[in-house]
Amino acid sequence: MNLVNHVNPLPGVPSIESPFFSELFDKADPRYGIASALRENGFAVIDFPEPDLDQITCRIQKDLHDKYDWAGWNAGLNTDMRVMDAWKYSEDVRRIATNETVRDLLSYLFGREAFPFQTLNFPVGTQQHFHSDAVHFSSMPERFMCGVWVALEDIGPDQGPLIYYPGSHKWPIYTRQHIGQKYQPELGRHQSVFEPLWRSLVEVHGLTPTRFYPKKGQALIWAANLLHGGDHHSNRATTRWSQVTHYYFDDCLYYTPLASNEPEGELFSREPIDIRSAVPRPSSYLGAPIRSSTVNEEALPPDFNPERYLSLNPDVAIAGIDAVEHFQNFGKAEGRAW
């Protein structure tokens, strides 16, 4: 059976994960190797297609430098060294996120048009516990999300390199219903509730982590359900400049499983912003908008004040992270003052 020029019988499954993979991808296509790597391993390495990356990198490091808590980092504190959505004011961050060659590649790999919706910029290693992005950014149909991580300098073993578990993307996507928990807004939505499960899955499958030591300009594409994280940044005198861009794909419902109770029909919906246009992309199904009555937005505490939250948590303000998003994703679970 040859489906290359015919209708895909499973349009609700990303092409790289489809049982019809061999029929959907032409081996003569120069991108076939990337598709095969993503299918088998859950990630693929490419050279980021930006001829001016050296100049862009220098400007990003200069423009974002003062947005990080360097004093806390140098003191050995577990400070949050990230800037979220710098594309809103940095044209260089936006240029990486909206690279059309990368977007076209992702659209080819997943079988739907890709659009960038979030950027994260790091000057050092995240040291983040390995995790699946599918608990943070999910979709219906599932798995229509991916990340692209770009090294903005050469990265070695003492700079907190990326770690990932090849093949883990093939596992089921586990949500709160699978671990016997109900989402409770007062407890927050931190991924730590899933970390014991992820550690157990790694152990029972006998997986060992792979570490990524890229040269400047290399990029890692990963599937939504691939377990990945950040290794220990052992030499704090070094940096690890990098940028992550997260992508969604057309005609899906976008939501956050960590803040949802799916069996009860309570979905924390997302309305991601297409970075190319800075316009929100509402959820849809088969080309039609999804009625707002089918989704529920998470309520903030009635007296929550974003300005007060940032004043009480200056590291969040310095990082340029949205107060509401930080509180819902991290601050509530961390017991931050608000």
Describe how the helices and strands are arranged.
Elements (H helix, E strand, L loop, with lengths): L20 H4 L7 H10 L1 E5 L5 H12 L5 H5 L8 E2 L6 H7 L2 H11 L3 E9 L15 E3 L4 E7 L10 E3 L30 H11 L4 E3 L5 E6 L4 E3 L11 E8 L3 E3 L17 E2 L4 E2 L3 E2 L2 E2 L16 H7 L1 H6 L3 H12 L4
Antiparallel strand pairs: 1-8, 2-3, 3-10, 4-11, 5-8, 5-10, 6-7, 6-9, 12-13, 14-15
CATH class of the largest domain: Mainly Beta
Structural domain tally: 2
Quote the CATH topology of the largest domain.
Jelly Rolls
What name goes with the CATH superfamily of the largest domain? q2cbj1_9rhob like domain
Overall helicity: 25-40%
Span of the ends, CA to CA: 59 Å
How many distinct helices? 10
Report the strand count. Answer: 15
Strand order of the largest sheet: 1-8-5-10-3-2
Quaternary state of this entry equals single chain
Reported for the largest beta sheet, the result is: 6 strands, antiparallel
Q: Which class of secondary structure composition applies to the elements? A: alpha+beta
CATH architecture of the largest domain: Sandwich
**Spans with pLDDT under 50 lasting ≥5 residues?**
none
Tell me the strand percentage band: 15-25%
Radius of gyration: 20 Å
What would the average pLDDT be, to the nearest integer? 90
Shape: globular
Q: How are helices and strands ordered from N to C?
A: HHEHHEHHEEEEHEEEEEEEEEHHH
